[in-house]
User: Fold these one by one.
Assistant:
Number 1:
Amino acid sequence: MNWTDPQQSVDLTNCDREPIHLLGAIQPIGFLLAVSTDWIISRASANIEQFFGRSHDSLIGRPASEIITGDAIHALRNRLALLRGADAVERLFRCALAGDDKYYDVAIHTSGAHVIIEGEPSTEHNYGDATGTVRGMIGRLDSAATLSAFFNEGARQVRALTGFDRVMVYKFDQDGSGEVVSESAKSGIGSFLGLHYPATDIPKQARELYKRNLLRVITDIDAEPVPILPVLDELKQPIDLSLSVLRSVSPIHIEYLRNMGVRASMSVSIIVAGELWGLVACHHYSPRCPSFERRSVAELFAQMFAMRIESRERQEVVEYERRARDISDQLLGAVASDDTLLRDPNWLSEILTNAIPADGVGVWINGNYAFSGQTPDTPGFAELVQKLYGTAAGRVFATDRIADLVPGAGRYASKAAGMLAIPISRTPRDYVVLFRQEIIRSVRWAGDPHKPVELGPNGPRLTPRQSFEEWKELVEGRSTRFTPSELRVAETLRATLIEVVLRMSDEASLERQAASDRQELLIAELNHRVRNILSLIRGLIRQSRPEEGTPIEDFVKTIDQRVHALARAHNQITDDHWGPAPLKALIDAEAAAFLTTQKDRISTQGKPVLLNPQAYSTIALVIHELVTNSAKYGGLSDSGRVDISWQKDNVGALVIEWTEHDGPTVKPPTRKGFGTTIIEHSVPYDLGGSADVDFDPEGLKARFVIPARHIADTPLTEMPSITAAPLPQTHVPVNSDLLLEQRILLVEDSLIIALDAEDILKRLGAKAVFTDATVAGAISTIETERPTMAVLDINLGDANSFPIADRLNDLGIPFLFATGYGEQSKLPERHMSRIVIQKPYTLATMTRRLPELFDDTHNA
């Protein structure tokens, strides 16, 4: 037989001509054949002669067809083709393998390069419809109203099917110990119901095997196992019999059963959600071997039993978590309307314990604490929080025994033996802790679980326990355990409710604290805006270089008009304390400045809309340049007109359209001046929008899209406090080698200021300058261009450049910050030692401060 891959079907085309191979040790109730095309020496189980009348020696090197009929080989080939997965086993009942009147129940699977065929004589002559049997068993299961009744019905059904003296449903605990949760037994043999068994009774490796091989049977503990012949395969390796249905078991387990007085046993794994939930354990006090077909039905029933357990448990979890979500929604709604509830521990306790049952709640925020219900005393709570800092920082932590975490916690165990700690801040600082009281209970063990380990007769190994008489243990200092569902609810409360609510409280507290510093804040804000205005004007002057031969008066006039455009916009946005201003007022102001007697030549259409200050200043320059160009060369230069319209699109962005008509024929400019640069690039660069300009001969057309975040209905909040710094001198020698071969990332959210800074950097010898205005764009530039240094404006509109600084720091790229605020600008802790230069960017400032950047002390 040619087996290729456990995940694929097996090709048995030539199986009748392939040699047979021996395998053992198995229980003597059946035979086992291992077949492989790779072996020269055939092998078969030592008891093969008992079932087929052929000696082992006579089968060496012989084909399978000598003892297995063609029909049987065909049937086996079909079953083997159905195997899916590494642990799959297929079965065939009442199969005449040798062509005589003997029928066998056969199991077939793969093990490494071998196909394993196991068989035992059929003892069922007319079992009936196995599917109907299981369906009826499951129907009786589903009628059980409670989980206890469900377990009892499962044990009763398996006992009726298999005839064992005792059938138990055995459930594993989190620590590996187990409990008999239901039992069906014949009268007079006593009861194991409710007994616990220590984790050592079923070693970890045995549990893993139970997850692969779902049914194991021992028909007689006194039966002599059939040995493997030969012991090793052709590769000098023992054959893996993990999936064998007849394989013998460990002598230790046989000794364990003998100590219990059990002669035969069967266990069926209960797998729930991919894990070993428990076992259906069957005991008999005399030899017993249920038919292979009945055992297979029992295995199928156990699988259906496990699915029903999973369904019931999931239904309970879903219902519980649904109720908990409703409670968390109530919490959020209540605090949103009245944040003083956060300072009421009794109210908070009532809400939280409705979601997660507890006997008390302790709250620790910024070193302040509050209690409700049964909790530790104040010193005990403080000590507990200190332990949480190092043990469960930033995550939900639960234990049913606080004394394992805090020595001496036993003194308050009667009030608080277990806890669930929910961190409510990003740093290990603030907690809400739910406490549960001590539950003193008596646990019934099947023998003393703490009995010392002894060496056994089979060498230096554990000896199975010899006593299984009931042994009671009084468990103290522990609470009811917090379930996985409760832990998930706690994570939800932390992530979506409590943390958000307490952050709202923190923000309100910061606002109250900021009120006392209002005067300093206003001064720093004014300083910041003045610096930005100075930088903007300086950039306007530098970028508005006149063409050679242009009279100085024309140059001054151009500068004067641009500065006045900014001044008009500034007047609008400062009327409401640096708040949003109407777009219509901006257009009217520009029209009045250029068309004192013919204002009606500019028509506007659109609903009232407010622009935030940043957008307002940018659009003021754009409209100014459009009006200026139109008055010089376009529709406003003679008898033409300009139509300006605006409206919001389906995502809330503002679309402004400029259309000129009835003016002179329009020609694309042969030289792109500063005004054209402002029109085409200010909105995309400064505001993250788009600008399209069409030099249509019939009249200039332009379309601008301003993102919704720049459209406002209420004034913007004030900026953080900063201390002013003097402006540096401007007349210094140019050191064109200062930044020689440097590739510089410049992050600046104002196009004009960015152009000015870029010029300065290039004058100082920079090889290349990569400019960007956003965090995402700058980080992308870092990854693609890998600059050698960077200059970062701290404030980027509604964001800051600290994420960019973090990435540069990770890559070891030196950088400095720039700001329009004073030197008191608050930097993150990891960047506290960085250089901060004050705006506006000047040649003097850059020449003085840049050499410091390459000092290792600033880039540690």
Number 2:
Amino acid sequence: MNFFRGVMGGQATGPQPTGAETIQKLCDRVASSTLLEDRRDAVRALKSLSKKYRMEVGTQAMDHLIHILQTDRSDSEILGYALDTLYYIICNDEEEEQDESEDENSQKQADDLGIKFTEQFIQDPEHVTLLLSLLEEFDFHVRWPGVKLLTALLKNQGVQVQGVILVSPMGVSRLMDLLADSREVIRNDGLLLLQQLTKGNASIQKIVAFENAFERLLDIISEEGSSDGGIVVEDCLLLLLNLLKNNSSNQNFFKEGSYIQRMKPWFEVGDDNSGWSAQKVTNLHLMLQLVRVMVSPVNSPGATSSCQKSMYQCGLLQQLCTILMATGVPADILTETINTVSEVIRGSQINQDYFASVNAPSNPPRPAIVVLLMSMVNERQPFVLRCAVLYCFQCFLYKNQKGQGEIVATLLPSTIDANSISAGQLLCGGLFSVDSLSNWCAAVALAHALQDNLTQKEQLLRVQLATSLGKPPVSLLQQCTNILSQGDKIVRRGSKVQTRVGLLMLLCTWISNCPIAVTHFLHNQENVPFLTAQISENLGEDERLVQGLCALLLGICICYNDNSLENYTREKLKQLIEKRIGKENFVEKLCFINKHELYSRAAQKPQPVFPSPEQMLFDHEFTKLVKDLEGVITKTVHKSSEEEKKEEEVKKTLEQHDNIVTQYKELIREQDSQLQELKEQVATLSSQNEQMQTTVTQQLAQIQQHKDQYNILKLKIGKDNQSQSGSQGDGSQVNGLQTEELTQLKEELEELRQQHALLQTQLADKDAIVNTLRSEVTATTDSSVEGSENTGLLKELEALRSQIQTQSSEINQLKTEKQDLLRKVESGFTDSAPTSDDTLDSAKMAELESRLAAQTSDAERLKEETESLLQSRTELEHQLASANSTVAILQTEKSKLQTEVQESKKEQDDLLMLLADQDQKIHNLRQRLKDLGEMVEDEDDLDARDQTDDDDEEDEDED
């Protein structure tokens, strides 16, 4: 331990070792010591020296420290020392002990040193992987310095470290676990680590997002108090911005996960807005930026529209409008809120309609649009706030013809209300005020009310202004041109260039693509001379922009001139330019617009962002108009009347050819459709034919099968008939015997009938006697005579009764025997004891008769089935014949169609030859025009412009 006492400042004799020597000895101890305690003490000593001797420790000890991380994983204390030491030699943010004389060069050297050591550490990607595995350790002394070290590596060499983490298995997931750490210091530093990790890497951003980052971050923001929270909320918001900005996949995931709805509580700032801490302002500013990221104009139109709809449905837009109209809100928050509301409503009809209905909490209530316009034309308001209001007004009118009509309607005589301030009155007031910035903003705002809306351009021509008492009112168009042409005092004050540029942009937007407005403009006899004078003069650099805009305005008057004014027809205006200005000079002045530096800046994005009021010259939508009209005006000015006539003839010829081509294309489409239908019919009939042939084949097979079965049955029937013929010979003998028996039975039956008749006669006689006796007995009983004779008569009467009963039973027995004999005669048998052979012969004969009857019925049934099958076969043969004829007809039609297709192809080839000849003629005409010195666009340029126009139209349709 004496060695460490000397190192740590204890008393020692002899010369003191230098820092490099001490570090070298410590490194040797780290490398050679076998005891863990010695290595731990040496690493702790290197940690204490790493801030002062950063270069030496980094150069000599880095490899040893990395080896410690690999081998001593079981001791968390030595791991913590090693990680802290690496952090100190790599990190550039730590406060180093520097003299006041040290300047930026020393700081730059320190930064370079950190980058050098970072490159040395990540030279082997396994070192980063090792560091990621150490982050899984829950021990605070290992995890926290590991997080700080990885953050420092990402700051110094972000792209390289991101690449290693991206390919490392579960690398991002391990880092996401830091947000779930219960120790706030690790969680907060984990946020800083993820901020560095997600910078500029879309792949890592997607992985982090799908690792449930949105849910965790929003939970942390809510737990920390939302906008009233501290620095942790700011870190979460910065990380969310990294994940969502310019990442359409994460934006869609954020929207689909219903996280937009969770943003609404952020903007519930309450009624008491007096206390706004700096941290709250920062947090709310970042929250507003998050909303703008989701609805930015650079996003795809579909995604932006979906987010705008969600923000309206969940009440986020309403909450933002509440902040917009609240009092006591800091200026920078109010400005950013206006910009946010602007992009939430831009191009969304439902959001624009809601914004139009918002009223400020004033007495009487005023529309929010009017209150904002009052701020825009008020020169005492901050410049950035006025720019934000202008952007909000532009977004409110973007693709909103309903809103444009409402704004223009406030200027029309029939709708003006003298008792209230309207948007139109504020715009006119700003347009003709003494403040040049108000002039410019009002002119641009009014131009947006006319953008791509021919109806409102014509309606605005009706606006009349009262200039002074006793003078007749003048139109708004006339007043704007008067200010430009007469050099009014309003223009001469302040920045007259800004005012004139604003008015010229308004006029160009107003009369473009509106022949009626062009006629009104040219009707003023002073306008054209003023424009030609402005363009032809040699003015200073500041006035060249005005000259270019005047050239643009004059060019629009030529392009959209309907030749209704005799003095200012298209041809006369072109002759005037040629005589007074010169074509080349005119084009040169026109081209100066797009060469201006501020023009390029305004063309980049819709939001008007200017560093100072003097640089506020161009509007984004106006740059699109210049781009569309510049080439058209240049061509129109250079063309002579003869060339225009020729071009019109060429156009007519091309249109005729286009019509012919269109007709042929339509004919070819019709023929193709007919051919396709016939092909489908042929395919259908072919399939039906195949099915019928299959059915016929199956039925033929069934017929053959039935034939075979019929032949087999015929053979069986022949054999049975032969066997029956033999059995009938035996049966004839039996029948002979039965006939004799039947004759004998009939004779016996006749005798029995005779006996029965005799008995019936006797019975009738006895019945008569009985009746006589009964009458006599009755008479005797009535006379009450008693005697022996009566007694004898009674006995005789009883005997007669018993005899009658006996005879009755005998008669009944004879009746029964008679019925049995009749039944036996009918069945061929008698009660006279038949022999067993007779019984057997009768049974055999009955069986043969039954078999014969069954075979006869089967034969008749088979005969009927055969006849029905023959009929079916005949019908199928007829169907097959008709199907074959149909196939023959279809084949004939198919050959005709093929002939027609060949003829159509021949006609198409002839048409292509004609088109090729026409293209060659057009090419020759273009070449002749080029030889004559005319500017002719190539077909590639025309195609590119057409493609651009088509894309713009598609974008507008999608919006």
